[in-house]
User: What shape does this take?
Amino acid sequence: MNLRTDPGGSPRPQHGRTQHVHPPHSHPQNGPALNSTLHTGHRAPAGHTPRGVRPKGRRGKGRRGKAAPARRRRLPLRYLLPSLLLVALLAMLMLRGYVHSEIAADHRVRPPAPTDHVPEKILEGGPVIDTRGGRETTMSVPDHRLVLTFDDGPDPEWTPKVLDVLKEHHAHGVFFVTGTMASRHPGLVQRMVDEGHEVGLHTFNHPDLSYQSESRIDRELSQNQLALAGAAGIRTSLFRPPYSSFADAMDDKSYPVTKHIGSRGYLTVVNNTDSEDWKRPGVDEIIRRATPEGGKGAIVLMHDSGGDRSQTVAALDRFLPALQKQGYEFGNLTEALDAPSAHTKVSGVELWKGKSWVFLVGAAEHITDGLVVALAVIGVLVFTRFGLMLLLSAAHARRVRRRDFRWGPPVTEPVSVLVPAYNEAKCIEATVRSLMASDHPIEVVVIDDGSSDGTARIVEGLRLPYVRVVRQLNAGKPAALNRGLANASHDIVVMMDGDTVFEESTVRELVQPFADPRVGAVAGNAKVGNRDSLIGAWQHIEYVMGFNLDRRMYDVLRCMPTIPGAVGAFRRSALERVGGMSDDTLAEDTDITMALHRDGWRVVYAEKARAWTEAPETVQQLWSQRYRWSYGTMQAIWKHRRAVVERGPSGRFGRVGLPLVSLFMVLAPLLAPLIDVFLLYGLLFGPTEKTVAAWLGVLAVQAVCAAYAFRLDRERMTHLISLPLQQILYRQLMYVVLLQSWITALTGGRLRWQKLRRTGVLDAPGAIPRQRSGSHDRSPVA
Amino acid sequence: MSHAFAPGHPPTLPATPPAAPGTPAAPGRPGRDRYLDLLRSLALVRVVVYHLFGWAWLTILFPSMGVMFALAGSLMARSLKRPAQGVVKGRIRRLLPPMWVFSAAVLLLLFAGGWSVGDDPDHGGAWGPVSLANYVFPVGAPPFPWHLGDKAGLLEDTWPAQAAGPLWYIRAYLWFVIASPLLLWAFRRAPWVTLAAPLALTAVIGTGLVTIPGETGNAVTDFAQYGSCWVLGFAHQDGTLARVPRYLAVSAATLVMALGLWWASGHLGPDGWDLNDIPLAQAAWSFGFVVILLQYAPSWRELPGRLAKWDKLVTLSNNRAVTIYLWHNLLIMATVPIIDLAYDLPFMADERWSSALDTTYMLWMTLLVWPLIGLMVVAVGWVEDLAAKRRPRLWPNGAGASSRGRRAVAR
Assistant: This one.
């Protein structure tokens, strides 16, 4: 069920935050950086506007003061729209559940009760009971007249056939329709009325009314009328109670209901000849039971709904001509009683209300059908993706872990490491020192992007060999990277964030794939350092799955959408061919990776090149990070859309990679809320056990995948305990973000840059590592 | 999820980071953790509202009893840095006098109503009169008749059960206080076992593997049911809880809560999802809930932001928690005859007005019970001060700096 909305296919921890990072695997020969608590600050590639029109220098000033009110104004919308959508969906589901008797249905049937309080003349009277205005009389159908009555319809399959037979033999009847069925099949009610039949009420939900309160009885009747008004524009004065039979079956429990209904102006119509067609006794038996003795008049009970009614239809086809030959007339009830029609036309507000009701029910039916299809699509997608991930990541791991696996001759040439930094005073030293411990020859180029906190001076103050600082006016991360590229001396360039810490072997592992001349870029393995908070643990799970399943899969499929900004390496010649970094999108890393694919370069994943990064610790920070990725990915997909029709490697990426990325990252997560809507509906209205079991089943599949990813990365499994909670809190946040990105994309809105909040906790460089457990006190959320 | 911390705000944290949950008050500076005070006030309000309306879902929304026992356990652990005997004595001394006042009032009403413990079929026999001693020292919940008087009387005939019902809490509290030195000893040696043992005991009793009859059974059930919450108070106090990584604590707590709900779904009581009738579910749900509440305990010196305006009420309800708890149910019942007086008003002869009163009856009860509680706080609340060897105060809502200082010493 993990429809992660992560637009990069896997987490790209390019922007962390002021926090401590310390890798669990620390090596004795590590430099001070890895043994000490490292402060990694958040690098904010600020000031991007979606199409690269960015006023220079805006980023530096007054953001803190200004961002808050802007934020507050936008807050409602990002939750309001998705929640409105969810509520609307849920309401539609509930409406459908109501007219399908899944909600508020009552299937109890009362056993027979004493009859002391039922007047004798009712018990022995005819099947039409008139209790209107205090009366207690009955009526019977005159001889040689038969009133056929059909209960529980209209049914989309059998009612038309019954109507056809009646029409063929020029017979009329009475249909006692339920509100639920009439709401769902209004056209059939209209046809009944048009063809001269009478329609009676059979309640909305078909409960045994003797169990119901007066107000519920009134509601059953009025909603039933509402459905009739909407379907055929009429009201009726005929009523048949559910589970009724003959007049002599009235008892002390059901007769008061009859009297109450009479007081509301209805004639109660029971029957005196029961065909018992619902038992499906065979056509002959139905005919035998439905035929009254000696030419008497009768009200015959039949059903046009509630199961296979082929016997009823077949019986009618013989019964009608046979009895017509005997001189019987088949009229509707008021024709048989020579009374004025039971129908009255409705108009005005009543009619309007009925029409809206029927329209809403119709909409709910269609929407629900659509939702079920969508849910099935989602299910197939999710499981296909899981299966594909498991298969391909296993294949990838087996290939690159073979003992004799080589990319080619070992890459030993020196590389340039670019560290773009904007106000990273708190973390830059740790970052640079971790590089100094590298076991691969490197030069470090720190590009200070107009920091105002002395980032550049701190690096210069370290006086480290092979570390250069390049200053530029504030121009954004892509510009900083391009400047770094211009200043880099070597042909292989590693890019990292100013808040990320490398292990000593990270650079070496990261550049080995360049032994293969077709490889243009390599993605490393970013790890979450602050994984002990709840939100950190969720992101840890997400990162491990993203890097060990998604990225391996994309590597095998040759369409990895993103080199993470926190740890990636590029061949300079490849970058130069595609024109370097661009600030066209908010996700320059996705943009450049797609450009490299289109240029025919291979992009691979180096699992052992680990980089430690700090994940956002508050919902706000996480939200703004993911919003950027999400929206940036959409921009990048849009920017490279032409690849779909191109030839060569670009076309291959356009026809394999782009659709895959769009499907899994942009489209599928959009449907993910459905899972929660159905979960909620199932929990509330049942079947509760099945719903819970299904959810747990999907969770188990999820857990298996996660556990496999953890095993591939040799991570401890304990963090998986937060997987269930992740599924009911974190995933929802992710799709709210994605939905918001969609809204931004569709409305052409601009994403204002949000500078992430710094916690302001600062240790002296090289200080003794602080206990992790202490750090979560600072986080206001999770 | 809070949005109070919008990115771009200057860091909202105080210059000195708040003390870790393990040390709710800076050493040497006695002070109250206002977060815990707020929880206690919420728990009290929840109890009163629950007793007014009887909504089962309130027991899930906020498991008040578990929260109250956890807070009490935390304070107990803090006090037990001093010699145990004195602490336990002090606790009992502070608890009993307010209860005696209440007991006296209830007994007076019971005897005036014609109750005789010897003749009561539920409490007959030789033990009947002896069990009355529980009104003085509640090792067990005191006896009371299930029905007294007549249905049409001033109060409903079940009033004794309603009035004396809350006394089980006093009994449970007493048991916990007396057991605390032992529990704390066990907790220091084997924290996880001690935390889980009451849950396990509840599972044994709650699943019906073992049943203990009578009041002893009730007492053991209550003790087991809330024992884990009480010990959680210890774990919060000494920082054990804060040392558990948050993801682990919260995720595990959620699982325990889910198990509790699952158990409840299969063992619904007479009031459906009312956890008070389902010990195992109550124990599990309260435990998980309290873990999460204490994991996120921010250790406030003062109520922040919008909560600040509730400061006085929080202070008052904390200073008079025992009084409010003991008397609230009796006062809820007392609202009935008072509101019934309104039926005698002249315009009430009109059907419309009296039926309007009928339909809004609960509303009036809800509105009336709070002033009555206030009256009772004024009338007998000062006994709590006497019991704590303080100068009696009528309305200790913390207004004024001097009382603030005294309050700090209070616990």
